[in-house]
Design a protein that fits this description.
By secondary structure, the chain is mainly α. It has two domains: 104 residues, no CATH class; 28 residues. 77% of the residues lie in helices and 10% in strands. The relative contact order is 0.05. One of its GO terms (cellular component) is Golgi membrane. It is found in: Endomembrane system; Golgi apparatus membrane.
Length: 144
């Protein structure tokens, strides 16, 4: 006859099964002790089985929670991937427009009269900025 005992180890939650083979014994006073130990062993086995069931339920709930978190991470990664694709397309359009503008600017600057006009406009803007800055400094200075 084989008796299966389940033993759980603290901290790990792992269980192991041990099998004990009984040796045929002579009937006698120890026979009543053996039957009572089998009853206690059966109760202990039920208690250990109940503990295993509780731990299995805890493990199942943790696995379920981990599965939900994993799905949420996957969804977030998919959203971020979509945003990166959209940003890539936007930057591609922006790069094309910038190249077009650069070509137009180079065409305009290639002509000597246009270049002189651009320098004149830049000089006027710089002069206006200097005048504005001077007036602003005079307004902020305390009168003596």
């Amino acid at each position: 006859m084989a008796i299966a005992l389940h033993s759980s180890f603290p901290g790990g939650g792992a269980t192991r099964s041990f099998t004990q083979r009984s040796v045929s014994r002579q009937p006698g006073p120890s026979a009543s002790f053996a039957s009572s130990s089998r009853t206690n062993g059966g109760q202990e086995a039920r208690v250990l089985e109940n503990q295993n069931d509780v731990r299995m339920e805890e493990l199942a709930s943790k696995v379920s929670a981990l599965h939900k978190v994993t799905i949420d991470i996957h969804d977030e990664v998919q959203d971020q991937h979509g945003l990166l694709d959209q940003t890539d397309r936007t930057m591609g359009v922006f790069g094309g427009r910038l190249q077009s503008t650069t070509r137009r600017f180079q065409t305009v600057m290639a002509q000597a009269s246009t270049r002189q006009t651009c320098y004149l406009i830049l000089g006027l803007l710089l002069g206006l900025w200097v005048i504005f800055y001077l007036f602003r400094m005079m307004r902020q200075s305390p009168e003596v």
